[in-house]
Amino acid sequence: MDSHWRSLSLGNISMSLNPILVLAGTANGSVHLERNGLIGSGLFSVSDTVSLDNFQFDLEADFGLGGTSLPATLTIQGHKLEWDKQGQCLTAQARLVTNAPANAFAALTENLADTVGDITCDAGRLRVSFSQDIGLANLSGAGVLLSEDVLSLALVLRFPDQTAISEPAAAFIRGYGFKQQPDGWYNEVTLRL
């Protein structure tokens, strides 16, 4: 069935419910989702809070970085995400795994491992943060989920010696929208999931 959560189209969802618990005013069961390159499953429960447990969602999409479109995979997996009935994040035990930085920086460094970010709750919002050595530099990011399908992410690329970057490497980094400051290269991106 084609389903929506708030304004976000979730696509085809199949669910199984425990009917005895529904009669008691709560619901729990399993969910399987497929939508435009997104596939995943998990366990859900609805009572005083809404939670998603033991889940994994995989997405293949193009992400924009400095006007360049990059193909990437994104996996969100975890033990628990929990919200109150107003949609405020209460608990997050999850992580985000992506090959987007490996694809973006393939010309600068080979065999870059997937980037792993921690998903946490902060002031009722889901947040993502990561830090990764990419060979020539360290790439870190911190972001917040602005809505059900939009992640705002601040990226910082730091080299051991900011002044020793070759002009071709600097031009490459600028091409992805990074701007140099005294303590690193900064970029703000918005990802539509």
Please estimate the helix content: under 10%
Q: Assess the beta-strand content as a share of residues.
A: over 45%
Mean pLDDT: 84
Low-confidence stretches: 1-8
What sequence of helices (H) and strands (E) makes up the elements?
A: EEHEEEEEHEEEEHEE
CATH architecture: Beta Barrel
The domain tally reads: 1
Number of strands: 13
The side-by-side strand order for the widest beta sheet comes to 1-2-3-4-5-6-7-8-9-10-11-13-12
Radius of gyration: 19 Å
| Intertermini distance | 21 Å
Q: Might you state the CATH topology name? A: Lipocalin
The computed structural class is: mainly beta
Query: Briefly, what CATH class?
Result: Mainly Beta
Shape: elongated
Number of helices: 3
For the biggest sheet, the summary is: 13 strands, antiparallel
What does this structure look like?
The protein has 193 residues and is mainly beta. It has a single domain (50-192), classed as Lipocalin (Beta Barrel), CATH 2.40.128. It has three helices and 13 strands, in the order ββαβββββαββββαββ. A 13-stranded antiparallel sheet has the order 1-2-3-4-5-6-7-8-9-10-11-13-12. A hairpin with a 2-residue loop joins β10 and β11.
Quick structural gist:
This protein has helices at residues 19-23, 100-104, 167-175, and strands at 2-5, 8-17, 27-35, 38-46, 50-65, 68-83, 89-98, 115-122, 125-133, 138-147, 150-158, 179-181, 184-192.
Can you give keywords for this protein?
193 residues, mainly beta, Lipocalin, 13-stranded antiparallel beta sheet, 13 strands, disordered N terminus
Spell out the blueprint of helices and strands.
Elements: E1 2-5, E2 8-17, H1 19-23, E3 27-35, E4 38-46, E5 50-65, E6 68-83, E7 89-98, H2 100-104, E8 115-122, E9 125-133, E10 138-147, E11 150-158, H3 167-175, E12 179-181, E13 184-192
